[in-house]
Give the backbone structure.
Amino acid sequence: MAEASESTSTATQASEPARQQSTAAHGGKHVHHGRTPAAWTGSGFAIAGFILGGIALVIGPNWVLFTIAVVLCVIGAVAAAVLQRMGYGAD
């Protein structure tokens, strides 16, 4: 067990300079690069919407399915914005 805790603390110490460099390069603010629940939610809805919209246009112009895809993209943008304001996004 002692070996596992030592390797964990070593890994944490090794990543610390990277964090300091990241915060120093951006004016003291840590950048998450999209690794937040808000970003994942918005991206997930956008990907689903774009795939569904592409399928709707390839199988013949199915405008009902395409409209559903557009609504999915809009819902994703709204959900990401709401989650970010709730504190689940980057600062």
Summary: The longest helix spans residues 63-88. The mean pLDDT is 80. The two ends are 36 Å apart (CA to CA).
